Amino acid sequence: MKARLAPGQVEEIRASAKSSGVLASRYGVSATRICQIRQGDAYLARNREANRKWREAPDNRAVTRQASRRWRQQNLERAREAARESSRRWRAENPRKNSEQDRERSREASRRYRAENPEKNSETSLRWARENPAKALAKVVKRHALKRRVTVGDMEAIAAVYDRAKSASRVRCAYCGMYPKVGDRHVDHRTPLCRGGAHSAENLCVACSSCNLAKGRMTAEEYALACEGRGA
């Protein structure tokens, strides 16, 4: 463990004219720590600048991206919260840049980049879809929902329903009560999108393929009545 310095020791280090090596041995800390105490914010600023230049060097960018990707995979929640906090802070500090007009310009720039770099976009999208199958399917259905101008709910909650249908060991069909196998499960809208149903976790359920295909455009209530009429 690193030695913890008392406030009085920190002041002694700042006032001392002895070399960093001598002070490091006396107080049980590194020479780098001694330099940091003596130089304060100037040392930290130089260190940050040196790190930034190293990261931006062409030969080091791949290493930096790989390290960042590995950290995000190992710390998903912290990475997501850090990204959300950074976005909130930026919006608060740049209210004019956060206008609808600026957001539309940003979206247009993204669309233009994807159009000009189809191979990169395709490769990135395919890799993301392979790593996040449930979210990818939820996004596909979201596009259909937006085309129909229906309400779209929280995508994290929606993706959780798709993930449960794909990977849970046992899931009961919402309509017949059976337990379909993983390959025989569908995610269904209780009230179909074509009937004005929302694309939201509250309107989604896991169903067996037989029930989902038989239900078609019916609502959950209509399908239940149809099953009762057939003596199901």
Kindly describe this structure.
Among the domains are: 7-56, no CATH class; 133-232, Orthogonal Bundle (DNA Binding (I), subunit A). The chain is built from twelve helices and two strands. The protein has helices spanning 7-15, 20-27, 31-39, 41-56, 61-74, 76-93, 100-116, 118-131, 133-147, 155-167, 209-215, 220-229; strands at residues 185-189, 204-208. The chain has a two-stranded antiparallel sheet. The protein is elongated. The N and C termini lie far apart (69 Å). The mean pLDDT is 83.
Which labels suit this protein?
232 residues; mainly alpha; DNA Binding (I), subunit A; two-stranded antiparallel ribbon; 12 helices; 2 strands
Strand content: under 5%
Series of H and E elements: HHHHHHHHHHEEHH
CATH class of the domain at 133-232: Mainly Alpha
Strand order of the largest sheet: 1-2
Task: Compute the separation of the termini in Å.
Answer: 69 Å
Provide the low-confidence segments as ranges.
Answer: none
Q: In percent, how helical is the residue content?
A: 55-70%
Counting H and I runs of at least 4 residues, what is the number of helices?
12
CATH topology of the domain at 133-232: DNA Binding (I), subunit A
Describe the biggest sheet?
Answer: 2 strands, antiparallel
